[in-house]
């Protein structure tokens, strides 16, 4: 099977969109009685056909300015735009508005069909086609074709189908790999089946039996049957027009603009970061002002929303800006989703915006600086580098990019369910706790790490483990969110005395010598060594050979200085820096062989930089 493609027909009223779709598919997209009586498209119309094994679905949108909201509802599902222009009338008001909309929502493959071409002589047709071409070239679409057509000329229709096929072949998308997202544009009840909804599948796949969330009702519904252009199928995919038979809700409680998605894939929010642009090809200057409420068209619905500009007080024709949009009601927007704003004077679409991510509750200055970065990775890195807290990413699909999880891992941003925290921030917290322990034996961890984070069981388990292995010694214990000093046991007190003796006398290197010197049992000496080793207070050089960690650290530093002075360190000159018997001195030197700053050659150790 070839590709699934949704083509949207747009353009000015009476330029022949619906007639063209009927001529191509054999289906009249004007389904309403009023549409047939008035001879104009009022609501969205649908048709489809197979072309060289590709399934082509048409969405026919109304061309009258009074029904632009319906046009927008359909346009947000387009893969390829087919813009119809009357050969005689050429570029009209809705041609401009529809083209602005199509360009703004990210459609980059365009077919411009010059209809009614049979009504003009060849010279006039060539002249008008040239004017039409000049208008569209200014939009810089990636792929654009122009073709004069008459619905009464079968050869011109064949040429158009060939162009449609060429566009279908080059169309690329990874939308099938994204989580299912489906906008409902029609609802009806069918006897024996129940509730039927139709709409366009933007992302993902759906199978019979799947359970979905219906927004905004937040009701779980089940897929009973799937239909694609009159054919029953088991799986529906992105870029298809789907009729879904759903159970769990009555038809009267479902409306156009409702959305279906898997529950954990998308989440409604009121605030989003976005980028907006004011169209330059509009008749009158339009100024969008910060902190002002506008009527916004998004998906198949429209709502009021406030626009808060970053770094600007207003933007006008041809200008763009980053901003925050605050909807009056929550909406499950996805990354890259487009919204549109219509002005009242003139009554036309004047502005487009693109959703970037839900609001993260951080300073506008930080997010603005981040959004100015060249790529998503730099954006996210800037955000986490300029905050001292974690952030909540509630879904994988609504933050900056569909591959954001991979970017977070690359930047070492740790995930604890929805909570994302920079590993450097956790290290900073551990450092603060360590410093506080120098001043107090009892610390409330929540005085350093917010209690809301500690309430995350996965995060607290990681923090507790890091505290116990990297910060605390066996003298401390963690009790809930508190670090407490343990009461020293007799063995811990003995271990402290053993350490004092080892620090004073380097020859006390094993349990036998320690037991003899301190008049204690071999078991007590052995247990003391274990405690001191676990606390990294003594260093094991070889089997049954230990020195105090402070002694070892001083030897390493003095060995570096000696290597700089003499050019090397060996058994002979090392006696200048430490007074130790051979049985201790030899394993001390051997530890240099594994040290990153030294290299061994024959019986001498050299600093790597001075080899």
Q: TL;DR of this structure?
A:
The chain is α+β, with helices and mostly antiparallel strands and 611 residues long. It is built from 17 helices and 33 strands. α10 (423-437) packs across α12 (457-471).
Please tag this protein with its features.
611 residues, alpha+beta, six-stranded mixed β-sheet, six-stranded antiparallel β-barrel, 17 helices, 33 strands
Protein topology:
Elements: E1 4-11, H1 17-25, H2 33-38, E2 45-51, E3 54-60, H3 68-75, E4 80-86, H4 93-104, E5 109-115, H5 122-137, E6 143-148, H6 154-170, E7 181-190, E8 194-203, E9 205-207, E10 211-215, E11 219-228, E12 231-233, E13 235-237, E14 241-247, E15 259-261, E16 269-278, E17 287-289, E18 292-298, E19 301-309, E20 314-316, E21 320-331, E22 338-344, E23 347-358, H7 364-371, H8 376-385, E24 391-392, H9 404-410, E25 413-416, E26 419-422, H10 423-437, E27 443-444, H11 451-454, H12 457-471, E28 476-479, E29 482-485, H13 490-504, H14 511-518, H15 522-534, E30 538-542, E31 545-548, H16 549-566, H17 582-591, E32 598-601, E33 604-607
Parallel strand pairs: 1-3, 1-4, 4-5, 5-6
Antiparallel strand pairs: 2-3, 7-8, 7-15, 8-14, 9-13, 10-11, 10-15, 11-12, 11-14, 16-21, 16-23, 17-20, 18-19, 18-22, 19-21, 22-23, 24-26, 25-26, 27-29, 28-29, 30-31, 32-33
Helix pairs in contact: 7-8, 10-12, 13-15, 14-15
């Amino acid at each position: 099977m070839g590709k699934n493609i949704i083509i949207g027909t747009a353009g000015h009223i009476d330029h022949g969109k619906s007639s063209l779709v009927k001529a191509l598919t054999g289906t009249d997209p004007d389904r309403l009685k009023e549409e047939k009586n008035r001879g104009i498209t009022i609501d969205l119309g649908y048709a489809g056909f197979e072309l060289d094994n590709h399934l082509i679905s048409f969405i026919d949108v109304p061309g009258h300015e009074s029904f632009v909201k319906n046009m927008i509802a359909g346009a947000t599902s387009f893969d390829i735009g087919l813009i119809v222009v009357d050969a005689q009338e050429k570029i009209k008001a809705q041609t401009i508005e529809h083209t602005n909309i199509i360009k703004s929502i990210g459609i980059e493959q365009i077919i411009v069909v010059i209809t009614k071409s049979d009504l003009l002589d060849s010279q006039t047709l060539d002249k008008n086609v040239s004017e039409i071409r000049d208008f569209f070239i200014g939009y810089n679409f990636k792929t654009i074709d122009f073709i004069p057509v008459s619905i009464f000329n079968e050869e011109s229709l064949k040429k158009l189908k060939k162009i449609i096929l060429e566009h279908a072949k080059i169309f690329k998308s990874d939308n099938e790999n994204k989580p299912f997202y489906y906008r409902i544009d029609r609802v009806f009840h069918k006897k024996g089946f129940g509730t039927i909804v139709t709409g366009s599948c933007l992302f993902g796949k759906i199978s019979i039996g799947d359970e979905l969330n219906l927004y905004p009702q937040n009701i779980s519904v089940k897929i009973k049957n799937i239909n694609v252009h009159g054919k029953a199928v088991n799986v529906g995919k992105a870029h298809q027009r789907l009729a879904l038979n759903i159970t769990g809700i009555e038809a009267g409680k479902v409306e156009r603009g409702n959305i279906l998605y898997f529950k954990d894939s998308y989440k409604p929010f009121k605030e989003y970061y976005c980028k907006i642009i004011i169209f330059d090809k509009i008749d009158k200057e339009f100024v969008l002002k910060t902190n002002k409420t506008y009527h916004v068209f998004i998906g198949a619905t429209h709502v009021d929303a406030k626009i808060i500009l970053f770094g600007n007080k207003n933007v006008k024709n041809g200008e763009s800006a980053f901003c925050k949009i605050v909807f009056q009601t929550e909406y499950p927007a996805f990354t890259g989703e487009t919204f549109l704003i219509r002005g009242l004077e003139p009554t036309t679409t004047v502005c487009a915006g693109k959703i970037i991510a839900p609001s993260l509750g951080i300073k506008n200055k930080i997010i603005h600086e981040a959004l100015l970065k060249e790529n998503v990775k730099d954006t996210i890195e800037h955000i986490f580098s300029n905050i001292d807290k974690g952030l909540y990413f509630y879904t994988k699909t609504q933050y900056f990019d569909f591959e954001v999880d991979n970017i977070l891992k690359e930047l070492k941003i740790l995930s604890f369910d929805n909570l994302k925290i920079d590993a450097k921030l956790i290290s900073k917290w551990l450092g603060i706790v360590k410093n506080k322990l120098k001043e107090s034996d009892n610390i409330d961890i929540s005085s350093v790490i917010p209690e809301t984070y500690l309430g995350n069981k996965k995060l607290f388990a990681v923090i507790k483990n890091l505290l116990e292995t990297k910060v605390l010694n066996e003298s401390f214990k963690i009790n809930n969110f508190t670090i407490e000093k343990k009461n020293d046991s007799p063995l811990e007190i003995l271990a402290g005395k053993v350490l004092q003796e080892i620090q004073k006398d380097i020859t006390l290197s094993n349990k036998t010598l320690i037991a003899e010197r301190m008049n204690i049992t071999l078991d007590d000496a052995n247990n003391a060594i274990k405690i001191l080793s676990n606390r990294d207070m003594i260093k094991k050089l070889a089997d049954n050979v230990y020195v105090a960690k402070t002694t070892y650290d001083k030897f390493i530093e003095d060995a570096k200085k000696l290597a700089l002075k003499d050019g090397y360190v060996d058994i002979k000159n090392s006696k200048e820096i430490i007074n130790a018997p051979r049985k201790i001195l030899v394993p001390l030197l051997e530890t240099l062989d594994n040290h990153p700053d030294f290299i061994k050659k024959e019986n001498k150790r050299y600093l790597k930089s001075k080899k």
